[in-house]
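Sample 3 of the quickstart, ligand iron/sulfur cluster:
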Amino acid sequence: MRCVHCGLCLAVCPTYLETGDENHSPRGRIYLMRQLQSGRAELGATTVQPVDACLGCLACQPACPANVNYADLLDHTRHHIERHHRRPAAEVLLRRWLIEFVFPHPWRMRLGLAGARLARTLRLQKVLPEFMRKMVAMVPTEMIRQNIPPRSPATVPETRGRVGFLTGCVQSVMFGGTNNQCVALLNRAGYEVVTPAGQTCCGALYAHLGDLEEARACARRNIAVFEALNLDYVLTGGSGCGFALKEYGHLLRDDPAWAQRAAAFSSRVRELVELLPPRPSGNGLSQAIVTYHESCHLAHAQGIRREPRAILRAVCGERFVELPESDLCCGSAGSYNLTQPEMADRLQRRKTANILRTGATIVVTTNPGCLLQIRAGLAAAGRPDIAVMHLADFLATVPGAPTA
Ligand code: SF4
Ligand code: SF4
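Result:
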């Protein structure tokens, strides 16, 4: 009801920019949600499609002068759709049995990745359905194993606090080396890092697919595991997961047994760039030309834009170049590139063209989904030589930066 139909959100919405279709704009989607809620529109393929096609990138939320909480509207609409709309069997198979059954569980992910690598070695891609071909193509050729002890002490005399580390499901399996670097950076910045057993998926994958009950179950489990550890902060290596953790207070606000505990947990969550100490700018330690892609859940959802740029400018000096449309979604959006491949491909091509315009040799970002999507886009454009790196991995390649 807060939406005044001003349309200021349209100019930042990736699906509207690509289609020019009001149904694929935030304003159109909010109107549709109200129609569904009031019973003036019925659930069906044509009303569900614009909601499915929303990236959940939240670019529309900070652009809205009326403070419409679009994330909340989207989560509840998707929850309603999953409870009351019958999807075709192929969609159920993809959403419930592949994404929800495999991705949030590291050992199932490992099995899936082994199968994907085998399919690639045996060149079986052509016989696979399209979404599986995309998945196989995106599997990194090299994966470093996560190697994080339960307790990892600060490695400098001046200590700053105790951090609980959530390893993430996709992140821990496909980007174990990035998790190792996050912990090493925190230790060098003066933080003791605790990585408890018993933690689980942040719940974002479930929430994106409309399964709020499972997202809440993940939140309760993580809160119970981390709150017993006497932590100053809680941190994870991917911005999508980081935002999900910051939202636990909101997700469990109506649960009397958990609301307070969830709010206390969320108040401790930080991003890596919020904990690394500020550095003097322009010392040009890196010789590469570097650009920066903003993860939607870091820039739009958490409003963190200045800190990563400050670090990159400090390390790269004049060799840091701004990426046009840096905060426009790359099309990854959790599992969106699997459920909505056509729009994901369009946004991937747009991101790739913008990157090529900068002349950068390294693209830095902070989210595992963006890393996979942008790498695949550059490879498809014949530029696999342009490195796409998580900020933590990039900093590890630069001697003396930023916390050594
Ligand atoms: S969501 Fe906000 S910005 Fe978009 S039309 Fe409604 S009031 Fe305007
Ligand atoms: S979340 Fe992103 S894709 Fe969805 S309506 Fe808002 S800006 Fe558009």
